[in-house]
Fold each of these.
Amino acid sequence: MRNSRFKKTAGAAILTLSLLAAKANPQNNQQPPPKATASAKDPGVRNGPAAAGGAATSLTGSESILFNVGKQTFSEVDSVFGTLNGETDSGLGPSFNMNSCAGCHAFPAVGGSSPQVNPQVAVATLHGAHNTVPPFITIDGPVREARFKTNPDGTADGGVHDLFVITGRSDAPPGCNLAQTNFAPQLSGGNVIFRIPTPVFGAGLIEAIDDATILANQSANSAAKMQLGISGRGNYSGNDGTMTRFGWKAQNKSLLIFAGEAYNVEQGVTNEVFPNARATTPSCDTLGHPEDITNLVTGAASDIVNFSMFMRLLAPPQAALSYGNVGADSIERGNGAFVQTGCALCHTPTLTSGNSPIAALSNKNVQLFSDLLLHNMGSGLADGISQGDATGNEFRTAPLWGLGQRLFFLHDGRTADLMQAIQAHSSQGSEANSVVAAFNALNDSAKQDLLNFLRSL
Ligand code: HEC
Ligand code: HEC
């Protein structure tokens, strides 16, 4: 259990301070230019060992085994066919973005987000593949997937278009000559948007939060939210009417569904949740579908079940009480400023999980720093993609736990600088405009405390 400094909510304090700031800056529809004197800056990625990646505490013996098997499966590298260089699983492609879950979910530990060196550069030409690396993929940039806004006929697309194909790989079927998507005309036409990986640490706790808890939090502090122009709404499953919560737009219901989708979309491996191939390419596609299934002889779980168990049983990231030159007092003041400026009205410090058959997930304080709701983030962040109930300018409040050891920020990974990430919250129509104005009205040392606090998470 971490310390209890996140538990305060101080609704009244939020209201007074933010209103003062909002008054001081009535033009809060527009992003005020950063002050010339500003010296507060992002302290950068927190050094030290990964504060995430282990199993949740107090798992039973058999839960620990499931975690370890799941972690191994999540880290498994897929070949197209057979076992090249120790690749232990197959089914990759015909098109793909990467060859393992852990390749993209890598930093600061397996289950996280983009690593320092983007593995998509190397995978483009692995085993003789001759893919061109698109310009938005760079060796020191974030892992990215690409979505197209519209189809050639102008109707909405919104789907993921894989970067690479297996053509040319030594393990591809001999007649396979599927062409790689040509991104150049799509890029010049402004039709491409990007998404970077969200970390899955503590994902089992997020899954275990009851809808009623999310809705009660949505109703809390309503006066303060109204004053600041913050609304927020849930995304809902068209299947059973419950709240969806995973992904940048809270578009996916569960870890199992996300695992099934990712396996097919990112790696081209069909499975029991998404059993059909995304495109018909018989010359490249010789295995039957679904490629990943429950073992028909032993009854052993399919990969997607193992992925889900690993993600479900991963511990939440551990916050630091102090680090580097940053003392506990600065972090404590920063936490206060985070609440007082109104960040915490969207980035809810703590929600509580419901009853779960897994004791480690049952009735816990989940210190995720998110309300799991969608907010209009303005024209500057809008990506024009609708998913479920989420419209083109709405995003799920990004959970901030683990932020201290995250390299890239915002849905498309446009910045690695926390100050930029905060300023990007402010643009025409954003629900965060007044809060960013309140942040910008803080003096430099208070801003620095807030940034120091964020990197303690
Ligand atoms: C090419 C990189 C890539 C690979 C490979 C990949 N992911 Fe992801 N993952 C992403 C991106 C990008 C997102 C955010 C997608 C979105 O919301 O649009 C994401 C989001 C997720 C989430 C949502 C977490 C949350 O709280 O929002 C889960 C769960 C997940 N991935 C599981 C997996 C699993 C399991 C695998 C392996 C089958 C996998 N991913 C493989 C890039 C990847
Ligand atoms: C109206 C709700 C709202 C408010 C208020 C708000 N945020 Fe956010 N925050 C979001 C959403 C939604 C995202 C994801 C946006 C995206 O990726 O396009 C986000 C993303 C972030 C990120 C990037 C996280 C990541 O993993 O990429 C940081 C850092 C952050 N917020 C910090 C803050 C701070 C600090 C404040 C207060 C000054 C604040 N936010 C106020 C909704 C809000």
Amino acid sequence: MKPARILILFSLACGMAGLLACGTIYFLINKKHTWIPEKLVELARQPDLLENPTAKRCGECHEAIFKAWEKSRHARAWISETYIKDSENRSKEKCLPCHIPRAVKAGSKPEPRLTQRDEGVFCIPCHMADGKMNGPYALYSPPHPTRQNDAYRKAVFCGSCHEKTYKEWQAAGHESTCQKCHMPRAEGRLVQNPVLKYFHAPKEVADHGFPHGAVGAGEIGLSVDIKPDRVRVVLLNDTVPHHVPTADNGDPRLYLTVEQFDTAGEKLDRVREILAPQQETALMYKKEVAFTYPVERGARRVSVRLEYKPAWSTEKTEVHNKSFTVDF
Ligand code: HEC
Ligand code: HEC
Ligand code: HEC
Ligand code: HEC
Ligand code: HEC
């Protein structure tokens, strides 16, 4: 045989062997990892992962999840300006457990931690327990041990810190978990590491940006009824199975503003209601709340506006803005 031909056959054989080896590794990792010898497993371990690394370190493999978390409010729990102000420059001891937790155990308030405080509520407290990364899947990860735990897909996990919201949710008796709405899942990969990603089958990945979206007209119903002598405004939280807004300590608010104008467009009257957990006026699930105001003499137009302000900002977003003609 010519040397060139030998080379081609040799490369082909190597390629086949390589593919077979990769296929075997893929199969073992995803289906039969208990067959992998313990000694081999130890070689692949990266022990620093179990010694409280930063979220960024986890992000070397879990890049997509890291990027989503980084933008979430959880990442700001300790550095948030409103938190710093309300906790009197972080001097209040009782504020620490949920804003810088050490380890989350579903259903009980965490202990505070002493290190890496700037990272707030990050990967380690939510996932590491007993020297393993706990999560929703029964899977095999060479770099660190993992353990499947059903609590990750249950509302009680979030209830460890979102105590009040969790109680409201229980009272609402809705079938959706917090994760369903605030960590929606989509098909993807748990890791983006250039080598590892080819060895792990795609799975559903939960959105670690913990979105809650702006409150929209779809969430809060608004109806207005005008009679010759009065305006009646009814608000209804028809879809969110906890109070709107909801909070343990922050001060998110809804503002309802009702204004009356005469034919010339002059303002005759303006009332503003605050719907907020701190004032115990937040909208309960499926419970109508009505406000009635007298119609001013000469009123020709009534405008009704509902705005939302999250706890960590002074900016408001519009939920409803309606205008009515008074023509009796
Ligand atoms: C060197 C790469 C690498 C690093 C760094 C890494 N992981 Fe992983 N992790 C993996 C792989 C691989 C999987 C399995 C992925 C799969 O099977 O789809 C995994 C799975 C997981 C799971 C799922 C567990 C389950 O049972 O559902 C969690 C949770 C997790 N890692 C958390 C972390 C945390 C927290 C850190 C940082 C301390 C971290 N990982 C750092 C590679 C890594
Ligand atoms: C260790 C305590 C802790 C756990 C567990 C926890 N959270 Fe949070 N969460 C917080 C804190 C603290 C904040 C507020 C951070 C800030 O803005 O200062 C927060 C904020 C949020 C926000 C944003 C609220 C806003 O006003 O924008 C959402 C949504 C949220 N969490 C959902 C969840 C869900 C869903 C779970 C369960 C999967 C969960 N959280 C588990 C402590 C926790
Ligand atoms: C507030 C707690 C919390 C924080 C902070 C958090 N996670 Fe998670 N994580 C969860 C929960 C709850 C699930 C399960 C969600 C589901 O499947 O419904 C999960 C799931 C996962 C999974 C399995 C795949 C999936 O999406 O279901 C991985 C991997 C993971 N997290 C890694 C990380 C990494 C890396 C970080 C930091 C960058 C992090 N998590 C931060 C609570 C948290
Ligand atoms: C059916 C979907 C759904 C479920 C289930 C759900 N939420 Fe919400 N949640 C929303 C919507 C929509 C908003 C936006 C309205 C708002 O900001 O109040 C929201 C807002 C929030 C906020 C922002 C605070 C605020 O009101 O400004 C937090 C925190 C929160 N939810 C936590 C939770 C927790 C914890 C659970 C589980 C106990 C949960 N949610 C269950 C849909 C849901
Ligand atoms: C039991 C857990 C827990 C404790 C303890 C706790 N918080 Fe929070 N905090 C939360 C959760 C969960 C949120 C996010 C949703 C909400 O507002 O309930 C939050 C949100 C906030 C917010 C609004 C978000 C922001 O960054 O502006 C502020 C401000 C705040 N907390 C201040 C405090 C202060 C001050 C204390 C101590 C007096 C404290 N918290 C104690 C769980 C807790």
Amino acid sequence: MNACRKILAAVILSGLAANVFSATETTAKTKVLEGTQGYRDEINRPPEPYTGPPRSGEQVYAYRCAACHAKTTQGAPMPGDDIEWGLRAKQGMKVLMQHTIEGYKQLLMPPRGGCGNCSDAELKAAVVYMLEKSGVKPPP
Ligand code: HEC
């Protein structure tokens, strides 16, 4: 009987522990999402078609990337931060562009940096712009 109670208590306790753990996890995730909802709505709006001449890195940066990168929103590296960009550049341009195009870190960095009407070349120009602003040589 006593052993039975002990087992029961252990089962209840481990259930509680699991609940507390998952509740904390959910809260942490929700917090991140709450903080990002405003700009997520903004960047998820269907892009206006763009048919003009190719935009420079600086123009693309101002059009979309600055929304997060100018303020380190959710940890977005700022242009001018040579340490952050220096470390990221070590991954090589292929990986940087893959993260830019597909999105990165549970899409805190959104696919195409939220610029649905940017070409791959325009996105690359924006990445190069942020690297150069940080005094980091764009990697091969
Ligand atoms: C909604 C916010 C947001 C927008 C808009 C945004 N970024 Fe980011 N970006 C992030 C965040 C956050 C990170 C850092 C993710 C991490 O490493 O935790 C990041 C990281 C990056 C990285 C580094 C990836 C790596 O591998 O380390 C590149 C390159 C990048 N962004 C390019 C761009 C470009 C180009 C644009 C504009 C076209 C853009 N981003 C727009 C949030 C954003």
